[in-house]
UniProtKB/TrEMBL annotation, chain A:
<feature type="domain" description="ABC transporter">
    <location>
        <begin position="7"/>
        <end position="255"/>
    </location>
</feature>
<dbReference type="InterPro" id="IPR032823">
    <property type="entry name" value="BCA_ABC_TP_C"/>
</dbReference>
<dbReference type="Pfam" id="PF00005">
    <property type="entry name" value="ABC_tran"/>
</dbReference>
<keyword id="KW-0813">Transport</keyword>
<dbReference type="InterPro" id="IPR027417">
    <property type="entry name" value="P-loop_NTPase"/>
</dbReference>
<dbReference type="GO" id="GO:0016887">
    <property type="term" value="F:ATP hydrolysis activity"/>
</dbReference>
<dbReference type="GO" id="GO:0005524">
    <property type="term" value="F:ATP binding"/>
</dbReference>
From TrEMBL, chain B:
<comment type="similarity">
    <text>Belongs to the binding-protein-dependent transport system permease family. LivHM subfamily.</text>
</comment>
<keyword id="KW-0029">Amino-acid transport</keyword>
<keyword id="KW-0812">Transmembrane</keyword>
<dbReference type="GO" id="GO:0005886">
    <property type="term" value="C:plasma membrane"/>
</dbReference>
<feature type="transmembrane region" description="Helical">
    <location>
        <begin position="94"/>
        <end position="115"/>
    </location>
</feature>
<dbReference type="GO" id="GO:0006865">
    <property type="term" value="P:amino acid transport"/>
</dbReference>
<keyword id="KW-1133">Transmembrane helix</keyword>
Automatic annotation (TrEMBL), chain C:
<feature type="transmembrane region" description="Helical">
    <location>
        <begin position="100"/>
        <end position="123"/>
    </location>
</feature>
<feature type="transmembrane region" description="Helical">
    <location>
        <begin position="130"/>
        <end position="148"/>
    </location>
</feature>
<feature type="transmembrane region" description="Helical">
    <location>
        <begin position="230"/>
        <end position="249"/>
    </location>
</feature>
<keyword id="KW-0472">Membrane</keyword>
<keyword id="KW-0812">Transmembrane</keyword>
<keyword id="KW-1003">Cell membrane</keyword>
<feature type="transmembrane region" description="Helical">
    <location>
        <begin position="76"/>
        <end position="94"/>
    </location>
</feature>
Length: 277, 293, 355
């Protein structure tokens, strides 16, 4: 593990038609760590992820990834540089099978031209086998073999999320961005997904940045937590540090800890799960 | 110089006719998100119904009312048989359905009334009127006035009546409209009926100008560049777009034609719309869709 | 039920990638191909070759061309006939003006020219999405026939732009008899279909479907949108160009620009809607339907008392029937005849069991 962080954000500001979504955010993600982005809804977490892999362009700020400093990231550069991601509303290719979706994740690993593939000559046949083998490894790892030939649009939600993760993994990325990978899952599915993420990190040394609402999961699997609220960073550190940060507590409860009462009961509930971990 | 203005104004007035057809499109697109390829066929159908009634000696106003009733019936039928089963499908699917619809309507129209041209007399002479040193067609002026009246009528409908409010609600967010109790099928039926009415007016004017014949349904294709320039969701855009297309088409024909060959007006509007799209993908007045990932 | 499928497993990935995994299916295909190449020329008559089989094959090819662009890559196009026209006139000019070019080379070059023109009209697809893209291909559909008529060089200075087929000589054999034209068409169509089937299962085919299903996600995972879309237009244009050339050379014999009008584009669009978007088999089924349906209708009309339905009315009935069928297919079976066939096959495989 090198000393310099894999990903470094500096002074990122993003606005849409005058509405500021992100204000002056900066943090670093070390190689090989799991970093969780948390915060109330609308805090700008998904937008931040979009800035990291180039879907949105920040008006201000810089991104440094794998030693390369950029003013702005382009989606294609991000993909080629080794950033893969999943989306909040599943962005799978609904008309294709699971296997085909996973294979598209490997499109940057191809060397043969389309003509070679069409005529089935040259580098194409051997490469087809290698691509298939790599895809199968990912499919096996995420245990989705039974649905290999199913059209993705027909699968249940939880499975689609796993296929999307498979597609991201198939690209053998250095940095994996996961946008609410456990949204809409029950407790058992969440445990399984958590295990996958931890295994991905430990077995393959993949750096993971994930957005997640379930504080229990966040506390349990992350090395590093960054807290956002109203587009600003209000906490940054280990899970322990963040848990004790008064600004973070205030953001979740709406009031300072001393005055915590039944004023915002739903926020208190989140706080309780926070403090229980 | 006067010649240039005559061509320009002639083009503008011709453009008004395009706008009339485009307005029908905008209505339907606004309320149901469907690009109604069958609009041209509906225009043709309306004109044919009207003309055949006239030819059988039915008085003008009665023919108009009967045709209007027929168009409304057609609209209701379309809503029931085609739109309702295809709710929620992709825009391309809906477009292809209206393509099929256009074929059906054309086939029926031709089967009932044959393929020959019918003359249509609207008692407005085409004699030129001298205005400020320019010669303008009376007919074109009448058409422009009709279009203006139609726009006023439609704005009143949309902004001053309850059903207009419902139409605007559905155009904005169909699900939200449903949840406050607005009945979508009824709204769609109204919209298609109004579009049918607009189609009838357009059909009468075009028919009087060109004779009621099958090339009328090709007018729909000219409406596409109009909509691209003016945006698919704006009536004022349809007017402006129509004017631009009409004027540029005429000017191109007169000034560019001798240089590169006649018959330019067949493709010029499309190339113009294409260039326009490259600069402004949502048209002059249209809404820019923000894609949420 | 018809044959035993058990025991046939794919052991290598290459086996899994075959068009037909079951040995019986492959034998069936081989038999069909054999029959088409050998049986049909021996058994068929001139009417069948000239009026049914050749247009069927060429419309299937044109359907495949449009299907690659619209069904697989999701780029809507109403300009198919224009690209066919480009191919036809380009091939004609190559044959005419470059005397030493063999026939197949002219066909190939005609296709390449059509591919180039298609790319030009496809460039807007990089900025414009979905529906608005129609305007670009419509522009092509109106611009191309105008150009071909206006500049008589294209038609070797003939009045109204008519061109006629060159002698169909290949490797010393004369293919101008109906059976000969059929075989030439069959050979070209088979080769291009084989290529096309490989393409749609390759990386490019997957990229096309990705762009069709969600192009922002496709860009994010590294698929080059520019190259993918333009290749779709180019390859589609190539297929349509070759189909157009053969349409002029082996089917009609003479053709003018207005034979490749908007109605023809609609016809090809109907073929792929009815046959099935994003399917290979669907092109054949859709083309068969389009070619045979009018024949069926006029035969039916012939059964009724004479004078009840005349020829003009048949055309109207056809229009109405096509329109109705499109709507029915879109409502009931959006994946067209290909899907219906697939369901039928599944049923027969399981019969007499239900599931």
């Amino acid at each position: 593990m090198s000393n310099s962080p894999l990903l470094e954000l500096e002074g990122i500001s993003l606005s849409f038609k005058g509405v500021k979504a992100i204000s002056d955010i900066g943090f670093s993600v070390a190689e090989g760590e799991i970093c969780a982005l948390i915060g109330p809804n609308g805090a700008g977490k998904s937008s931040l992820l979009n800035v990291i892999n180039g879907v949105y362009r920040a008006q201000q700020g810089r991104i440094r990834f794998a030693g390369q400093q950029r003013r702005v990231m382009h989606p294609h550069a991000a993909a080629r540089g080794g950033i893969a991601r999943t989306f909040q509303n599943i962005a799978l290719f609904k008309g294709m099978s699971v296997l085909d979706n996973v294979l598209t994740g490997r499109n940057l690993k191809r060397r043969s031209s389309w003509l070679e593939q069409a005529l089935r000559i040259g580098r194409a046949p051997g490469e087809d086998d290698r691509q298939r083998a790599a895809a199968e490894r990912v499919i096996e790892f995420l245990r989705i073999q039974p649905w290999r030939d199913e059209i993705v649009g027909t699968l249940p939600y939880g499975l689609q999320k796993r296929v999307e993760l498979a597609r991201a993994l198939a690209a053998e990325p250095r940095l994996l961005l996961l946008d609410e990978p456990m949204a809409g899952m029950n407790a058992e599915e969440k445990r399984e997904m958590s295990r996958f993420i931890v295994e991905i990190n430990r077995e393959f040394g993949m750096t993971v940045v994930l957005i997640e609402h379930d504080i229990g999961v966040v506390m349990g699997i992350s090395h590093h937590v960054v807290v956002l609220d109203y587009g600003r960073k209000i906490g940054d550190g280990s899970p322990e540090q963040v848990r004790r940060n008064p600004d973070v507590i205030a953001a979740y409860l709406g009031v300072r800890p001393a005055a915590a009462s039944g004023l915002f009961p739903h926020r208190s509930a989140t706080w309780h799960s926070f403090s229980k971990c | 110089m006067a010649f240039f203005f005559e061509v320009l104004i002639g083009g503008l007035l011709a453009g008004v006719m395009y706008s009339l057809v485009a307005i029908g499109f905008v209505l339907i697109y606004k309320a149901s998100g469907v690009f109604n390829f069958a609009q041209g066929a509906m225009v043709l159908f309306a004109a044919l119904t009207f003309v055949s009634l006239l030819e059988r000696g039915v008085p003008f106003w009665l023919s108009f009312l009967v045709t209007l009733a027929t168009m409304i019936a057609l609209a209701l039928l379309i809503e029931r048989a085609v739109l309702r089963p295809l709710v929620g499908r992709s825009p391309i699917t809906l477009f292809m359905a209206t393509l099929g619809l256009a074929y059906i309507i054309e086939g029926v129209a031709q089967a009932l009334w044959g393929a020959q041209v019918h003359g249509l007399e609207l008692a407005i002479s085409d004699a030129p009127l001298a205005l400020g040193g320019l010669l303008l067609s009376q007919f074109d002026l009448f058409a422009a006035a009709t279009a203006a009246a139609l726009v006023v009528l439609l704005s009143l409908l949309f902004n001053r009546t309850r059903i207009g409010l419902a139409l605007r609600a559905v155009a904005d967010d169909p699900r939200a409209a449903m949840s406050v109790g607005i009945r979508l099928p009824r709204v769609w039926a109204v919209v298609w009926a109004v579009a049918g009415f607009v189609g009838l007016v357009a059909g009468l004017l075009w028919g009087a100008r060109l004779g009621v014949q099958f090339s009328l349904s090709l007018v729909v294709l000219k409406a596409l560049p109009v909509l691209i320039i003016g945006g698919f969701t704006s009536i004022s855009g349809a007017i402006v777009g129509g004017l631009i297309i009409g004027a540029s088409e005429k000017l191109a024909e007169v000034y560019l034609g001798p240089l590169i060959g006649g018959g330019i007006e067949n493709w010029f509007p499309y190339v113009l719309a294409l260039l326009f799209l490259l600069v402004r993908p949502a048209g002059l007045f249209g809404e820019r869709a923000i894609e949420r990932v | 039920m018809l044959y035993r499928e058990a025991g046939q497993f794919s052991v290598r990935y290459a086996d899994d990638r075959r068009f037909f995994r079951l040995r019986q299916d492959r034998l069936g295909l081989a038999a069909l191909v054999l029959f088409a190449f050998i049986g049909v020329p021996l058994l068929g008559n001139d009417y069948w070759f000239s009026a049914i089989l050749i247009p069927f094959l060429l419309l299937s090819l044109a359907g495949l061309g449009l299907n690659l662009l619209t069904g697989y890559a999701g780029q809507l196009s109403l300009g198919s006939a224009a690209f066919m026209a480009v191919g036809a006139f380009a091939a004609y000019n190559f044959e005419l003006r470059v005397a030493w070019l063999p026939l197949l080379a002219s066909l190939l070059l005609g296709g390449l020219v059509a591919a180039l023109v298609a790319v030009v009209f496809g460039l807007p697809s990089l900025r414009i999405k979905g529906f608005y893209l129609l305007v670009s291909t419509l522009a092509a559909q109106f611009f191309v026939p105008w150009t071909l008529t206006r500049f008589s060089w294209f038609s070797n200075d003939s009045a109204s732009g008519v061109i006629s087929a060159p002698p169909l000589l290949m490797a010393g054999y004369d293919f101008s008899s109906p059976a000969g034209r059929y075989l030439l068409t069959l050979a070209v169509v088979s080769a291009l279909f084989w290529l096309g089937a490989n393409l749609v299962r390759s990386e490019l085919g997957r990229n096309w479907m990705a762009v069709r299903d969600m192009d922002t996600a496709a860009a994010v995972i590294g698929i080059p949108l520019l190259k993918t879309k333009l290749l779709a237009f180019a390859i589609s244009g190539f297929y349509l160009g070759v189909a157009g050339s053969l349409w002029a050379f082996t089917y009609l014999g003479t053709v003018e620009p207005h034979g490749f009008d908007l109605n023809r584009s609609f016809q090809i669009l109907f073929i792929i809607i009815i046959g099935g978007l994003g399917s290979i088999l669907g092109n054949f089924l859709g083309a068969a339907f389009i070619v045979l349906f009018p024949v069926l209708l006029s035969n039916l009309a012939g059964l009724l008392p004479t004078g009840l339905i005349d020829a003009g009315q048949i055309e109207n009935l056809q229009k109405m029937a096509f329109g109705t069928l499109i709507i029915i297919f879109l409502i009931k079976e959006p994946e067209g005849l290909a899907r219906l066939w697939q369901r039928f096959r599944e049923r027969t495989r399981r019969w007499p069991l239900r599931h």
